[in-house]
Amino acid sequence: MDKKIVIVLLICFMIIACQPTPETAAIVNKREDYLQEAGKKEEQFSVPNDYTKEADPNAKVLIDFHADVNYVSEEYPILQVRPRVFNETDLQSMCSYLTPNTALYEEIEPTKDEIVEQLATMQNYDGSLGSFVDVSEFDLLKQELIDSWNTTEDSTLLIPYEFDRKIDSPLLFVVNGFTEQGQICKYTMNPKSNQFAFLRDRNIFIYPANSVRGIDIDSPCIDEQNARTIAESFLEHFCSDSYTLAETDRAFVMRFYSKQETAWRFVFIRSIKNTETIRQTPYLRLDKNSLPSIGAPWPPELLIIDVDSYGILSIVWSGASMICSTLVEDCKFESFDTIIQRFDNQMFFQLSGQNIGADYKFYINVKEINLCYGLLSEENDQDSGRYVPLWEFVYDFGFENDAEDELDEEKIYFNAVDGSYVEPRVTNQYLFGILS
Question: Are 365 and 68 within 8 A, CB to CB?
Answer without folding.
Answer: no
